[in-house]
Amino acid sequence: MDDIQRLLIERACERLVLQFAQYNDYKENDALAALFTDDCEFARPLDPTHPYYGRTAVGNIFRNRKPIMTQHVMTNILIEVVSEDEARGRSYVTMISNPDPDRSTPKEGGGIFFGAFDDVFVRTAEGWKFKKRIGSVALHQGGHIPQMPPATDEERGITK
To answer: What pTM did the predictor assign?
Structure first.
């Protein structure tokens, strides 16, 4: 693989990281779900030990959540190309929120969360996708930490 190929893969994966944040903030749930493979694994930063499996389950997390305003800032995006069809990455996420989902006027932010995403990217027939995305929170400033009710195995995409 030459340097140009490596850079193109890195850029495609970096773009997924940024698209995830933007689609999440603007509630573009179908576009967000389309960033993942059909057989993906995803764990929310505030609940990293209970991953969701499959694109449908991941999409439902965002479709079914209570509307709030969020703003995600992605930084320190580092992509390591493993092969022409796989890459791994880590990025830092800073997220601030407000319970009012209306973006028409500026709002005071609530808590600020600082964390990371560890990603596995794969090339598919539709382009690069998240195969695995595991979030974590390292620090929290102000506001409250949302208590998420545990999802059922069915909601998490676990079939028996």
So the answer is: 0.91
